[in-house]
Design brief:
alpha/beta, four-stranded mixed sheet, 12 helices, single chain, nine-stranded mixed sheet
Length: about 350
């Protein structure tokens, strides 16, 4: 089935406009204090960048993916292209920028599984609004368009405008937080944020640091239709919440031992986008994405930690994670019958 035909039937391609980096990751016992020098006990170089990670996650989830990105004409760029080819992600829209280095992320992962990340944009900054304009045909055939906060703000905003023009669902992962316009936020469906990013756009600014999953679900519900068409907030090991005009839902995460949290949020977002593009409801896609994120933290690395579709669906079905509409007379531990599926 072609992309346009698939879109007419409620499912189709995911087009990702995003960053492409090479991750240099050091594994340490604990993070160094300011001014402290420590020794790492392992080191890895891998494909990264929120755009690349999310494109791979959507591809692994079984959806056709088009990835629009820029890389430098250097060894890191060659490594990135080779890795995308190995993973099966099409590279027809990955542009070579001869006068800029490939983006890089310097990552430190502690034995606790937590990480710190410093990103240098490099060639990613060459992904301009004009380049977005040149990809109008891809957007026209897409069911869903996904982008992130690592791109220049004018580029993010042009992606939103063109997605709306062609009626493609626009998903914005505003990570890191970027000063996009209120109009761009309002068309996001969903706007995907973690707790810190949510506070940065005015969601949950007064919420306590130990706010529960159900409290965040209420906060997402208050923002849906106001800040964005729909809202998803990820809450690490607690799970995630979502809200749209139809209701609000919580998906608790299963208890797992985290080995490396790097890229898990991107695995969540790419999976969420894929299942929304496939035609799943927001609560269904939320529950599946939480399962994908929980699987990702149990392995080292970013894209190589993303589990295949069948594994994610099996984990989602086996999990105790449930979603339910938020209302005063609803059992918050139960999933509505309309969102229950057997994979």
């Amino acid at each position: 089935m072609g992309a346009v035909a698939a879109r007419r039937n409620g499912a189709g391609a995911v087009v990702v406009f995003g960053s492409l980096n090479v991750d240099s990751t050091s594994y340490v016992d604990a993070f160094p204090a300011p001014g402290e020098t420590i020794l790492a006990h392992d080191f890895r170089v891998a494909l990264g960048g929120k755009g690349a990670n999310q494109a791979v996650a959507a591809h692994v989830a079984g959806l056709p993916v088009e990835f629009v990105a820029c890389v430098g004409d250097d060894a890191s760029g060659a490594f990135a292209r080779e890795t995308l080819d190995r993973l099966g992600v099409p590279m027809t829209a990955v542009r070579l920028v001869p006068d800029a280095p490939t983006g890089v992320a310097q990552i430190t992962v502690a034995d606790s599984g937590e990480n710190t990340v410093i990103v240098t944009g490099g060639a990613n900054l060459a992904l301009t609004p004009e380049m977005v304009e040149a990809e109008r045909e891809r957007v026209a055939a897409a069911a869903l368009v996904l982008t992130q906060g690592e791109l220049p703000v004018p580029t993010i905003e042009r992606v939103a405008v063109i997605a709306a023009e062609f009626g493609a669902r626009f998903v914005l992962n505003l990570a890191p937080p970027a000063p996009v316009s209120a109009e761009t936020l309002r068309v996001a469906d969903p706007l995907v944020l973690n707790e810190h990013e949510a506070r940065a756009v005015g969601i949950g600014t007064d919420a306590p640091s130990d706010a529960t999953l159900d409290e965040w679900r209420a906060l997402a519900a208050s923002a849906a239709g106001v800040v964005a068409r729909s809202v998803v907030v990820t809450l690490g090991g607690a799970g995630a919440v979502a809200a749209d005009a139809a209701g609000s839902w919580a998906a608790p995460a299963p208890r797992v031992t985290a080995v490396d949290t790097t890229g898990a949020g991107d695995g969540f977002t790419g999976t969420l986008a894929a299942f929304l593009a496939e035609g799943r409801s927001l609560p269904e896609a939320l529950r599946i994405a939480v399962a994908a994120g929980a699987l990702a933290v149990q392995a080292r690395g970013t894209v190589d930690s993303y589990a295949p579709r069948d594994t994610v669906l099996a984990a989602s079905s086996a999990s105790d994670a449930a979603t339910s509409p938020l209302s005063a007379d609803t059992d918050l531990s139960a999933e509505p019958a309309s969102t229950q599926t057997k994979e």
